[in-house]
Amino acid sequence: MIKALRYTVLVVLTALFISPLVFVLLTSFKSAREAVQTPPTWIPNPFTTQAYERILTASDTPVFRWFLNSMLAATANAVLVVVTASLAAYALARLDFRGKKIVFALIVSTLFVPPVILVIPNYEIVGRLFWLDTLLAIIVPTAASAFGVFFLNQFFASLPLELEESAFLDGATRWQVFTKVVLPLSKPALATLALLSFLTNWNDFLWPVYVLFSPENQTLQAGLSTLQSANSVRYDLLMAGAVVASVPVLLLYLLAQRFVIEGVSRSGLKG
User: Fold this and answer.
1) Is the pTM of this model over 0.85?
2) Which domains does the chain show, CATH number per domain?
């Protein structure tokens, strides 16, 4: 009886959480008129793909170009975050140098700084580097991740030190130990950090709006905002764009789910 009640509650909660996503998907197949109909309908009548045809073929909304821009920017940013964070985290986890605890504390303390505070300073820096209206403006500024350093530091600290000592006894250098011993053992944590960094950059809206001006240089999240104006909102187009934007996120999570669970559980960040 208790088991049946438990499964019933889980089914109800699952339906409750999934229903908005289902409604977004179904709305993307509605006509512009039906999408704003009151009361709203669940099943499209008629079932149409006009919204997808509109956003994927219209010259004033190059969604496919925005999709490629977001994919390139998020992938490049994730790679840079993993590289910089892994190097810094390993140094803080394994090397002994004066002021190491202070450096780590300063890095972690930046996690308490609201990102919106850094918009103006970052804009000034990007402008002086002549990166405005380029993808570099949304790839490089967040390449140094304080969360990434903290996350990987926790993971590296959990690795057995004996493995590295054995490699040193065999004549390996510090760099060889890092690249051939530590990194292969850290695949779950690296995959988790790469996924989180990708999603953060992919979903970013505020910063691309400030630094990207040309329609062809927009990212998907910022570009989709142009589908609504002060006087009207095309909900069918917005929902179709939301579905397109969610596809890479769902695929990445399904592919990396095992690594995410293992990486989080071994890094000491259990929820």
Assistant:
1) no
2) 1-48 (no CATH), 63-266 (1.10.3720.10)
